[in-house]
Amino acid sequence: MIEFSRFELANGLRVLVHEDDCTPMVAVNVLYDVGARDEAPDKTGFAHLFEHLMFGGSINIPEFDDPIQRAGGESNAFTNSDITNFYCTLPAENIETAFWLESDRMLGLDFSDKALEVQRKVVVEEFKETCLNQPYGDVWHHIAELAFEVHSYRWPTIGKEIKHIEEATLEDVKTFFYKYYRPNNAILVVSGNAKKEQVKALAEKWFSEIPKGDVPTRTLEQEPIQKELHLRTNVGKVPVDALYMVFHAPGRREEDYYTADLLSDVLSNGNSSRLYRRLLKEQRLFTQIDAYITGTIDPGLLVIEGRPAEGVSLEEAEAAVWKELEKLKEKPVAEEELRKVKNKAESTLTFSESNILNKAINLAFFELLGDASVINKEVELYEKVTTAEMQKMAQRILTKENCSEMRYVAEKEN
């Protein structure tokens, strides 16, 4: 049970506090309600670019990491399709350092051509290294475009094209910042050896004078129901062929998200899972296979990916996967099998909430979803899933008309 208190500043900044005096440390997490899904189709990769820009210096602080490190802490961040999240951990007696730093970069970044150029080069190099120069690195560019026709999940977080970052102007950057990086579009969570009264005083001192912004109402196009198989084959310089099959699945705000999550675990979570045991260990059709859900706020994807064994064609591999999926639709999962994946889910949740940083990150995300207290109900929500609901979910989403399939074929040498 994660106990927490909540208050809100006049400028709209939501603040949550989880008190834990069993640790000498404190975690400070700031979540901004902006991700790749909020970008324009011709200006993608901006949320990820800002993850880097936010460490490049602000109005009063030329280098973000130095004060944190001098205070005995460390900081980092991550961006995905839905959110941009910044966090740090440091000794509790130095908590004000984190408030000073986070408030200063929320107030205003170092908007200069030099700062933009430095971080632009970093992001461009990351794009080249992870997407263009790495085997299978561009696979999510293909999958996202294949699975989504109108929703802005149709490009990955790093951006659709490298030129969108290369051509970003200082005016583009300023516009994006003042649109989304405002206190009324952020959630601050403090977890660890701090009291609510202390956090409230610090929040008022460092954040209350930052003006709220005119944050736009999110009006994303909803993805229509897919009615036919989407298929793409890409030939590239990869070691071996690879198969990717993705199915539209519930988003995080839907209660049957938990059913879809357990369904992916039945398929591939551990050595006793169906795809791993039957297709890799017993039939030896794959050398690697996995299944998972993307866990996005809006309806996302259940993903199956694998690399066929030597001598096994992609067609044979695909047929074997479909055979296993049909079994899930024809016959309910056994109670014992469902119990096993529920136990694993509970164990994963318990582990993920074992330290103050994870608690801070998770509390911020559930607050964004609409109710931070749901963090204490997740085990119950998994526990409620029945074998009949699992079968219905399989019948509903594991169909050919709901599938987008990407075949990555290894380029043959001359």
Describe the structure.
With 414 residues, this protein is an alpha+beta fold. 41% of the residues lie in helices and 19% in strands. The protein has helices at residues 46-53, 65-70, 95-107, 113-132, 139-147, 162-166, 170-180, 196-207, 257-267, 274-282, 314-330, 335-352, 356-369, 378-383, 387-397, and strands at residues 5-8, 14-19, 25-32, 74-79, 84-91, 186-192, 230-236, 242-249, 286-293, 300-308, 403-410. A hairpin with a 4-residue loop joins strand 4 and strand 5. Helix 3 packs parallel to helix 8 and helix 11 packs across helix 15 (387-397). The mean pLDDT is 95.
Write the layout of secondary structure elements.
Elements: E1 5-8, E2 14-19, E3 25-32, H1 46-53, H2 65-70, E4 74-79, E5 84-91, H3 95-107, H4 113-132, H5 139-147, H6 162-166, H7 170-180, E6 186-192, H8 196-207, E7 230-236, E8 242-249, H9 257-267, H10 274-282, E9 286-293, E10 300-308, H11 314-330, H12 335-352, H13 356-369, H14 378-383, H15 387-397, E11 403-410
Parallel strand pairs: 2-6, 7-11
Antiparallel strand pairs: 1-2, 3-5, 3-6, 4-5, 8-10, 8-11, 9-10
Helix pairs in contact: 1-4, 3-8, 9-15, 11-15
Helical fraction equals 40-55%
Topology pattern, helix = H, strand = E? EEEHHEEHHHHHEHEEHHEEHHHHHE
- Low-confidence residue ranges: none
State Rg.
Answer: 23 Å
Whole-number average pLDDT?
95
Structural class: alpha+beta
Strand content: 15-25%
Number of strands: 11
Distance between the termini: 61 Å
Q: What would the principal axes of the Cα set say about the shape?
A: globular
